[in-house]
Amino acid sequence: MSLLTQYAFLIVPIVKVAVLILIVLTVDAYLTWIERKVVAHIQSRWGPHRVGPHGLLQPLADGVKFIFKEDPLPANVDKVAYFLAPFLALMLALTSLAVIPFGPDIPVLGHRLTLSVADVNISLLVLFSITALAVYGVALAGWASNNKYSLLGGLRSSAQMISYELALTLSVVGVLLVAGSFSLREIIEHQANGHLGLLGWNIFGFTKDGVGFTQIIGFFCFYIAAIAETNRVPFDLPEAESELVAGFHTEYASMKFAMFFIAEYTSMITISCLATILFFGGWLSPFPASWTLTHYVPSLLLIPLGLWVIFDGLRYENIFGRIVLPGVGVVLAAIGAGLIVFPAVNDAIQGVFWFLTKVFTFLFIYVWMRGTLPRFRYDQLMSFGWKFLLPVSIANVVLTSAVVLWRMH
Amino acid sequence: MTGALVIFFALAALAVVGSVSLILQREPIHSALSLIVVMVALAGLYLLMGAEFVAAVQIIVYGGAIMVLFVFVIMLLNAGEEERTNFSKLATFAGIPLALAVTGFIAAAIAHSSASLPAPEPSGALTSTKTLSMLLFSDFVYPFELTSFLILVAILGAIVLAQREN
Q: What is the CATH number of the domain that holds B25?
């Protein structure tokens, strides 16, 4: 036991990393399912529905497929860069999650458990430095594949990421000026204004004395630039199928392709977390702190969801769905009921619940946009980034500094 | 302390290996990748000294922006393998002894003064970024603005050069 406490500073982060990676990879897998389902319903299709109830086992099947696929090595590739690229992409995408605080400190067995792997005071800068390096995965993959479509995809992506990184970084400066800190934790705590609830978030920006300066311009710049950084629709030019086949990952198959895929979805999660933290109050509840009844919102959502899943499973056609779905439903409903029975646990999970709710909202918006918007043309993308987004985010910095200065005097 | 020392030597070794590989690689893109490794290792060393802001900026600016530009140019030019020329006589007879002499001098200087050199104090971790920005915008505001002006001139120059052809 003494050995365990002695090396706790080493063991606790390792356990956190393992748990986080497990959760994130599962969420990634089910994000593909959500994406296919939502896009399918936007386009009046069913989406995956053969493997398991509602196609819920589709991600598992995809995973198995990726592992057992042949992994051919194209002729004359640059071997070092070719193998390095997917590892780099995945590693950087997963590393960036380390500094994200997923909730306030939770008391566990008398200790305070910090819900982030590394609680550093320059976490935002760390995130941006990892984003800055993430270009290499894509650029190297495109260059190493010895394929002109890949090369063009890689070049486009590098140019796009460099261009939008400026707007991304500048759009956050407003939040930094208001909060006065690089620490994501402190940025969230700055947005907590007891009786104001969601009005205290940076997107509305009301402070305790009732006046505020909204960061809504900063948020729009941030979100547009972030979508471009993650190479998603409508900025997914690096993999424009009609022009570039599959862009930078044309020559990648099997798990190496899957690694790019996981990296893309992981960076979507990171960006959604970041948008939540910087502009939407992170783990803060949207309701004023005095409304204690709102602590039952998680239960109120979980119990009906569980009951619906049970009901849905019972009328499912095959025996598998009839067992799995009610099982999942019972677990969900039981968690919901358990939260009402144990108020201490309920209080502890409030932060995490609101954080995850907001993050999944942003992830849904990602998918929603993919089902809705057409792709930009390359020159439109560049002129939009440099001639519109960058000036607007600089204007936001100037405006916010003026307001901060005015408030100081 | 030993932990910090182990990390220091690991990062230092990484930086040295990266620099050597930067020179020895024949593919330009491998050289660029080696340089990125050096930049990241240097950032780690800064972090070890408690200069987090400098470390992060090192990665964002040098590891990210500047090296991306390098890689970008290499990819655009599709630069092939370097050709090796024979060592010039000047390099063999003057360069190598000179390099050894300089290394020896530096090593001797460091060995001589190690007792009097103050160890880098980890600056107040919580305030270092704030302190740095306060200093930049109060005591060092003129050098800072001058540097910004220089960079602006460089940007304008680049635009003028790029537009001359039209």
A: 1.20.120.1200
| B55 domain-assigned | yes
Residue A276 amino acid letter: T
Spatial separation of the C-alpha atoms in residues A289 and A280, rounded to whole Å: 16
Is there a domain that residue B60 lies in? yes
Number of helices followed by number of strands (H, E) in chain A: 15, 2
pLDDT at position B125 over 50 = no
CB atoms within 10 A of CB A360: 16
User: Do A155 and B27 lie within an 8 Å CB cutoff?
Assistant: no
In chain B, residues with a C-beta closer than 8 Å to the C-beta of A394 are: none
Gap between the Cα atoms of A225 and A389, Å rounded: 8
* The model's pTM: 0.84
Range of the domain at B18: 1-82
Q: Name every chain A residue with its beta carbon within 8 A of the beta carbon of B77.
A: none
**What is the number of structural domains in chain B?**
1
The more confidently predicted of residues A198 and A229 is A229
pLDDT above 70: percentage of residues in chain A: 95
Question: A108 phi and psi, to 5 degrees?
Answer: -130, 115
**Nearest CB neighbour to B59, from listed A121, A133, A180:** A133
Residue B122: the pLDDT is: 52
In degrees, rounded to 5, the angle at the alpha carbon of residue B147 between the alpha carbons of residues B145 and B152 is 95
User: What average pLDDT score do residues A317-336 get?
Assistant: 82
